[in-house]
Amino acid sequence: MFERFTKDARDVVKGAVAHVEGVGAGTVDPEHLLLALLDREGSRASFALAALGSGEHREPVRQALREARRRAGLSRAETDALAGLGIDVPEIVARVEEVHGVGAMSGGRGGRGRRTGRGSFGKGARDVLQGALRVAVARGDRHIGDEHILLALTARPGVPAEVLADRGVTYESVTRVLYGGGEAKAG
């Protein structure tokens, strides 16, 4: 599948791996793909994000992803569902961090030391990349671009889609920016 990726899409994947290596995590997750997309300039996904106001949202998006990592990657919907069962996630996070330090629930670090070499792709990241392929095929595109990765992130439930939707970046809004009414392609 990687051979069908455009240079921009390959750069997103490489950027996600770099984010993982930068924090010493073991696997590439959807959040890392989003961070790599936010780093991009001059691509179709960066055009869509800029058109939807991501320039002013980059740091808040990064902060929201950091907060989700502190909650062990739970989305707000998952946190709310647990609250409905009487489980207070912020309280649990506070207690764990009191004993083990800030970020103890982030995963990927807990005493295992820093991994070297290439980060592997977690199931969520693999699902996003497969989703990007499905989006490209459904649109009749021969190659998978970074815009397809962005669309796949917005279509998949989880923290990246939630964080983006909070800022008005949804599958529908990205599609509208990139493809207009549905048939015409942007740029």
Automatic annotation (TrEMBL):
Keyword Repeat belongs to the record: yes
Ranges where the Clp R domain occurs: 2-187
Source species of the chain: Streptomyces capillispiralis
Keywords, alphabetical: Repeat
Region of interest (Disordered), residue spans: 104-123
Domain of life: Bacteria
UniProt xrefs under InterPro entries: Clp_N_dom_sf, Clp_R_N
Keyword Zinc: no
Gene3D superfamilies given in the database record: Clp, N-terminal domain
Entry protein name: ClpA/ClpB-like protein
